[in-house]
Amino acid sequence: MTWLVIGTDAVLGVFALMFLALWFKFRLRAFLAGAGVVVAYAISEVIKLLVQEERPCRTAPSLAECPEPGDWSFPSNHSVTAGASAMAIWALHRTFGWVAAVCALAAASSRVIVGVHYVHDVLAGLLLGALVSWGIAVLLKKRQRNDADAPTVVLQRLG
């Protein structure tokens, strides 16, 4: 089952490679989509401090090493990152988005299987991450539309 633990972190690497590939086509939009992942993670950390739910591995055996006490369970940061990444990638590129969605579900599921999160931790994480990234994608699309509608000013040289 060690492959599940390693696989969860490897999925995050897959997301990084997808963002890198999308960077060459979308530049600023890819950067801002990735920044949305960071925002989702930060929100997740604040929620963890407010909720302070113990991990299931504190009371039951797990297949992975249980994180240090004070590293709370709700919501799952891996799932937040996976959900935010998948939604951001989906907004930029549908084919990569399907791959990212499958990877996000696999990463979230593995956290439950290895015993370091409850099901509601990963579901909340996926939802939180996806919503934050979706909100940022909507704002970017709206801004892009507004920029396209802006009048173009042409100055003519005198003389």
From TrEMBL:
InterPro entries in the record, alphabetically?
A: PAP2/HPO (IPR000326), PAP2/HPO_sf (IPR036938)
Any transmembrane segments, and where? 5-24, 30-51, 96-116, 122-140
- Where's the Phosphatidic acid phosphatase type 2/haloperoxidase domain? 28-137
How does the record say this protein sits in the membrane? Multi-pass membrane protein
Q: Which keywords label this protein?
A: Cell membrane, Hydrolase, Membrane, Transmembrane, Transmembrane helix
> Per the annotation, which location comes first and is thus the protein's main one?
membrane
The name on file for this protein is Phosphatase PAP2 family protein
